[in-house]
Write the structure tokens for this entry.
Amino acid sequence: MFKKLLALLAVVLVTASLAACQPAVVEEAAQGVTDTEILIANCAATSGAFAPVGVPFIAGIEAYLKVLNDAGGINGRKVRFLHQDDEFDPIKGKACLQTMVEDEKVFAIVGHFGTPVVGATLEDLKDYGIPAVYFATGIGQLYNDKAEGRDRGIMPVQPIYRTEGQIMVARAVALSDAKKIGVIYTNDDAGKDLLWGAQKQATALGLTLVEAQVTAGATDVSAAVTTIKEANVDFIIGAAIQATIGTIVKELAAQGVDKDVITTYVNVAPTIAGQFENEIAGKFDVYGNGWVSFEGDRMAELQKFAAAAPDYASNAFAMTGWIAAHFFTEGLRRLAADEVITWEKYMDAMESAPIQNPFGGEIDFGNGLRAGTQEMNLSKVDPTAPTKWAVVDGLKSIDSLLGK
């Protein structure tokens, strides 16, 4: 027995000795990270038809990062930004992404731009595993209730139609205690994604939806409007973007419908309200969501932005670039100064607590939630307002609208 104990002790000592001789595992930083800088990039249209959007968007990102870097960066590291014009072309966008990730070896993609390019490259981003913060589109493929594994790096900020559809239902309940909601939706991605969100929230609340589809860009929507009218709904969601919403609202007025309507944030513009402001007068109200606000402390951030980008001080697209850079850098600020920066740690940091939009509400990536903007304000068509829309309620989440 004693000999067996000696033999066992010898094995333990040898094993411990071998383990002690093994070199310690050194954690390596992710690509694009050095002691002095963090390299990020995006591909966005800065020429062609979408240049009026892409150029100020890039300028907003660059302005934010200049202010940051002039102040010393984050924990001694400057953030360097690369950009390539993809002309809103999915093929060029795909090639650009490959160059940035595989050749330039950037740490993250910030401000991935445009529906066709994002749609063509979203699976590539997931395959790379690279963090991608802010997408200049609201396509439904970005939405995820619980992102895990290869989906974790996708971090949308801009409103996603699927989330907005849920908020629309919550607004209908808050505004009119609606139990039966009509949804007139277009047969395109925007309309279907808004409907998806409305269905999800209506199911959760036990509400009834009456759905009627129209063709995007249709000039005759009378049959769909008649369906909604005859259903005697309490409230109506106009799940359509610019090319169709005016036709829908005017037909509702023409058929004598007297129920209020809510539509997506992309329709909250003077030109849209001008299409039907006379037709709806005295009949019903048309509401629209919004996701940018300059109330309270946000005014100080707006002044900071205007000073940093004076040529774009009133440009909404430049402001969204500023927002994109803010969200990306917030994850870096949450990492300890001596921490080895990896993709996994960065994602953990982004999920650790909600992030405040400098020009909007909070966005929570916690527990894998990838829903984009989760708090929206409310405007109403008002011909006397400078923009023909007047804000009637502040930023609210679904829970706050429902009294939770």
Summary: Residues 1-19 have pLDDT under 50 and may be disordered. Residues 162-290+376-401 form a domain with the Rossmann fold fold (CATH 3.40.50.2300).
